[in-house]
Design goal:
There is one protein chain. This protein is an alpha+beta fold. It contains three helices and six strands. A six-stranded mixed β-sheet has the order 2-1-6-5-4-3.
Length: 116
């Protein structure tokens, strides 16, 4: 994902949307609003990467307003390690806009690569 992809993606998000990220004991985990998540990605995740994350969609299931997406993400970091994670993301879509996102992923790997 690069900046232009993120801008396009966030254009499909309702201004009042909520994002929940797994990781109760992790500084990134918890519930964020749209602006808060954009700030988090721009200030904490983006600066760690040497290039945009590669995102591979493994599967999609949709029912009603709920869309479940299984993805694999990877990318090199500035310290020479790689961020490689598997995620399950649940989207709730109403009137063509994303209103809720719940992201489940390997929080231990994420915290080791992205930081506490």
């Amino acid at each position: 994902m690069n900046d232009s992809n993120l801008a396009e993606a966030f254009g499909r998000v309702d201004p009042d949307a909520t994002f929940w990220l797994a990781g109760k004991e992790w500084s990134v985990g918890g519930t964020h609003d749209r602006d808060g998540l954009q700030k988090l990605l721009g200030e904490k995740v983006g600066p760690l990467l040497t290039e945009p994350l590669e995102v591979r969609i493994v599967g999609i299931t949709a029912e009603g307003e709920r869309v479940a997406v299984e993805v694999e993400v990877s990318g090199p970091t500035k310290d020479g390690s790689r961020y490689e994670n598997q995620m399950h993301i649940l989207y709730v879509v109403r009137d063509g806009k994303i209103v809720t996102v719940k992201e489940y992923h390997d929080t231990l790997h994420a915290s080791l690569v992205i930081g506490p």
